[in-house]
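Appendix B. Raw example, untouched.
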Amino acid sequence: MPLIVKDYTWTQTETNIYLHVPLKGVKPGNIDIFCTDDYLKVHFPPFLFEAFLSEPIDDDKSSGKIGNGVAVFTLKKKEQRQWEQLVINYDKDTFRQIRERALLKAKKKLATEAKAKATNTQEEKKYALEIMMKLEEEERAKIQKMKDDECEKATAELEAWKVKQRQIAEDEVQQKIQSQMVKIDKQRISEKITTPSSSNGCKIKHVQKNCVPSMSKKKQEYLPAPRSPGNIQIKFTPRVFPTALRESRVPEEEEWLQKQAKARSAVNEDLLELQDLNKEERNPYWLKEKGDKLFVTGNYLAAINAYNLAIKLNRDIPAVYSNRAACHLKLRNFHKAIDDSSQALDLLTPPVAGNACARARAHVRRGTAFCELELYTEGLQDYQAALKIDPQNETLQGDTQKIRQIIQGSAPCLSD
């Protein structure tokens, strides 16, 4: 049963409430704070402070600081005015309803924040993907433009070379024709001087027939020289995953790699811790039996150590989690007891007759932890689940009926 803290102090302004709660020497790491618009709870075992506020506050704009043995809360008023009192005094049923309502508000708020965070994350991923695709499209366009420019440049150079070669060929043909014509002219002049007039016409005609080059021949075609060889450098993006970068989801892959690295680091640490154990201590079932014996003798901390080592060796034994939850119940570590019982129930699937007793024990232990935290609705659900497995158990029937009466207000709370 927790100790209720009543030696708190508070002051106020038109807009804020300043609340000072002494921590009784408890370390800051062991403090659990829960706040809504009309309810504030500070739990630091074995102490508990609850404030059922007389007027609503803005819990999103409120804040708290822990230090020097005191927790200081700055609560933002929704309406700017002086409060007549900090808390209200109701009966236990009203307090229980306020707690349940505060828990529902907190759940709805967490669900809304989680949904908004998921939407924001999805939008960020979508935006990053669009930016990446845009950059890659620009890069492809840039490369294609370089290819087109090089192709146009090579085509222009080839056409210029062809024109030049044709011009050279035409010039050579003209030079040959001119040289032949010069020779013919010289020969005509020499024949006029050296031969008689009677035979002059015949000889000139003979020279013209044999010496003038034929103009019916086609011009010789000139082919361009082959292009010089070259190399294109291709650089690939380094990738851990086999998919292309544009088809991958980089944030998820990096997160997966980080988780893998942490898992490997944890495995290496466990191996260093387990290498000094003897053969029996490396058997998780032997460690479970050792923890059970320590639990029977009342040495709960030593039993938890044995169960912890067994879990490091084998994380798939539901009885180890369930028995460690029983140890946490004895030590009043109720949140840890809830976690271990939930883990045991996750491993006890599918529900069959062979694991019925184990499932019932896990439900009872988790339900007990919920009831110790005054979460009777959740505790009743676990007890009803255990009673459904073992309907003839009279002890379960009595405990279930008692919790139902507490919820209905016809029986005192367990903390009372």
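End of appendix B.
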